[in-house]
Please model this.
Amino acid sequence: MNQKNKDGLKPCPFCNNKNVRTIVGVGTGTKHNMVVCDLCGVTVSFHDSPQYLQMIKAWNRR
Model:
């Protein structure tokens, strides 16, 4: 079973690293939320600025 980290995120689906984090990025003039794995470097962007909880649900849904 995948344990969630302190932010409620499941481990990275590619390398199973538990140290994933959220960041806010700016691209083409709009903000978007991202989840980043510090081990394998995967970055998943959630455009249209979903709310934080929606982003967590989307990351964990995979």
Observations:
- The longest strand covers residues 20-27.
